[in-house]
Every structure is written in structure tokens, then in C-alpha cells.
Amino acid sequence: MARIIRTILAAGAAPLALAGCMGAGASIPSASTPITPSEAQQGAQYHPQFLAEFGGAMSGAQAAYVEQVGKNIAVQSGLGNARESFTVSLLNSPVNNAFAVPGGYIYTTRQLVTLMNNEAELAAVLGHEVGHVAARHSQRRQQAAQTNSILGVLGAIGSSILLGDSGLGETLSRGFLQGSQLLTLKFSRSQELEADDLGIQYLARAGYDRRAMGTVLASLAAQNTLDARLQGRNASIPAWASTHPDPASRVQGALAKAGAAAGGRSDRDLFLSRIDGLLYGDDPAQGIIEGSRFIHPELRLSFTAPQGFYMINSPRAVSINGQGGQAQMSTAAYNGNLDTYVRQQFSALGGQNSTLAPQRMQRTSVNGLSAMVGEARVNNGNSQVDVIVFAYEFARNRAYHFTAIAPAGRAAVFNPMFQSMRPISQADAGAVVPKRLQVVTVQRGDTIASLARRMAYADAQEERFRVLNALGSRDTLVPGQKVKLVVRAR
């Protein structure tokens, strides 16, 4: 979250405002129509905001490779000037995600690329997003949304291959979740399936294995299940995503549409050689999650999530999620007054027309840090929730805060987390080492178990290795085969 924090400290926490989004009466070009100047202008307007929300665009040979594959698959869409009109970005994000923006802007996160096992799967994911652009799905979603807010616009134009519609309509909840990568709203079930179909067509035209759409979705489903188990949550897509077909439900459909015959190329070894060394998981410059602990070596802070909760890190904030409530840790402009700072966070939660304010305020200290906590009980639909802002002063011009929401009377679940915030030493910061992908060749005598022990995790090493390499419970390795490991970068 460092990049966004630096921006906020420099410019303040003023909300973004977008203008000129497509109105309900606008006509939608057909799939064969080239990208129009107005679509290109719209995409260029939103592009910097998506880059900021998802960690920025990566550069170098790996990003250039992803861009090349993306533009090659875009040509298969039949859109005029596709190669020149599409912008393909590899995002520095630890979340498995890919999405598209009108005007030919398509994105995939580096984390999703590390989950892939060949170039055909990369082409499938990018082709899926090209399909959204070609079918003008974003424009249709925008017409339905009819909103000018940043949340509504990003929701209408953003397409994720994995997650579903948030459905969090209340202003309070929308403000609370801003900055989380779970925020980006998604397309309808039929639009996602149509994009799968188009992506498979593009694979065939480009000479790739058509089954790649199904296999990459299978890997996504397996990773989702493993993450859910490790985080102690339900593996099913949550209720707010119920309108979106999850990867597991799409696998068989994609494989059936691809046909039984293998056909086409996968370019596995080429792909693995190109992604070798790619950053895996959290970027230390944005902070890292180690089990239940979050550590930020640049900001020199650390905290621990409550038992039974899991965290998701993004450039803007760290979200903490569980059955007992939700929280996020972030920052805003600070003028040296914690009381004012806390009240400003309540006001921001409530939105522009809200009078949301703390009903109780208390000054305290936590691990040597001056702190202030504000609390309020508010109506949230047919129920009440407790809203807490717990802020800490790290310097005269620097503060961080938790915002937490829990059912009325149950916010104490976050107290251990509030009390765990602490500065860290330079030695602790220097001990943070990123993880990277390492491609190795299986040698005689190597087994899944022996290679999995080299994974940079203390738990579930073999499960992580199998999911990373799309290996089933009965699969084995053969000498000469290339596989991926996650190792500590030294």
C-alpha cells in the first residue's frame, strides 16, 4: 500500500470524481466495429486509476511478453486496428485477477500469471478480456449502472475473471470497502460465459489449444478452494457474488465447448522460461502478509489479524475479513491532530451527503504510539452495526488507522488487532524477503513430495505445489519435466 499512501500524504484524501461516462441513451457498436475514439478516450481516462488500484504496471521482459501475447490474441477478435488499439498491462498485484476497460485496455495481475502453466492459458485469460471489449459488455453495464461515482464507474467498467458482483448497496459499506480489490464489480453471468466462448474462439484462430480456457479456470478454482481452506473460510463464492459464475462451475462448460481433441499448441516450456523469477505474493514495497501478521518494511509497522480472520493486501489498504465483521487498515492526510483525523474518517465513510460522526471518542496509547478511537452505532438496512475508527500517530505528519464494522455489540473481536499495531525495527524490516517463482527441471529421483519441501511455506507445501503446477492427486513427475516452485528471493 506504499504507493497510494505516498500519494495521499502528498495530495490529501480527496475522493476521485469521474465525469462524462456513457449515458443510458448511448448506442453500443457491434462486435465487429473497431474501437471508437470515444471508447479510447474513456479507457484512457480510467486507465491510470486502475493502475493505481492494482499496484501499478510492471515493466521489463516479463511485462513485454504478456503484452505481446495479449496483442496477438486481440488480433483474433476481428476488431479493426486491434494490435495498435489494445493496451495490455501486467499489474503488480498479489491477487488472482484479470479485467478489461472500454477502449481496448486489458489487464492481468502477476499473481494470476504465476498460476498459469503455459502460453495458451495466458492467451485464454487475455482473450476472455478481449471478448468483453469486443462484445461491448462494459458499455452495457454502464448503461445499467447509471452512476457517476468512482465506485459505480469502476464497477461498471471493470471485469474480473474470478470474482463476482459485490451487491453492497449501502453508502456506508461502499465507502468502507473502497480500496479493496474485492470492490471491483463484475459482469453478469451471461456476459462472463459469452466472454469465455469468445476467448475459446480466439484461441482456435491463433492456433492454441482450445482447452486452455478450461484448464486455467480449473487452476483458479483449485487455488480458490485452497486459499479458502488455509484462511478458514467457506470455499464457495460469497452471496454478494451469486450472480457471477465461479471458476469451478465454468470449467466443464469451457472444456465441452473446446472439444475433446487436443489440437493446437500450448508453448509450455517457452512460457515457463519467460515467467521464471516473477515476483510471487506480496511485494514488500506494499507490505506483506505472513500468516495472520501484516508487516510493512518501508512504513515500519506491523499488526496481527484477529483469530479466524483473513487479510487481503492492496496498494490502497489492507482488508481484514471474517464472519464476525470487516476491517481495513489505511491512511489519510494528517495534520497532527488525531481527534480531527478520526472525525474525518467517519465523515469519509458516510459519503458526501452524510453526517456520520463518532458518538464516543477516547484517547489512548498502544505500544508507545499515541492513539485515538472513535465509535458509533448506525443503522445498516434492517439491522445495526458498530463502526470503529482506531487511529495511531507514527510521526507529526503521519498517521494510520483501522476502520472496522461489526454487528452491534460485537466489535470487541477486533480489540486484539487494535492492540497489536506497533512500530518495527530496522532489523525486522530488513528481514522481510519477497517470494519469487523459480522454474526447475525435474531430476531423476525427484518427487512431488521432495520438490514441495523446497516451497517457501511452513504449511501445506505439497498442496500449494500441486495447485501451482496443476497436478492432480494421482499425477506424478518425470525427469526433464519443468515445474514451478515458490522460493525466497535472496
UniProtKB/TrEMBL annotation:
PROSITE patterns in UniProt: LYSM, PROKAR_LIPOPROTEIN
Signal peptide (UniProt feature, chain positions): 1-19
Entry keyword annotation includes Isomerase: no
Cofactor(s) the protein needs: Zn(2+)
GO molecular function: metallopeptidase activity
First-tier enzyme category under EC: hydrolase
Location of the LysM domain: 438-485
Protein's name according to its UniProt entry: M48 family metalloprotease
Record keywords: Hydrolase, Metal-binding, Metalloprotease, Protease, Signal, Zinc
Domain of life, per lineage: Bacteria
Record-listed E.C. numbers: 3.4.24.-
Family matches, as InterPro entries: LysM, Mito/Outer_Membr_Metalloprot, Peptidase_M48
Gene3D superfamilies to which the protein is assigned, alphabetical: Metalloproteases ('zincins'), catalytic domain (3.30.2010.10)
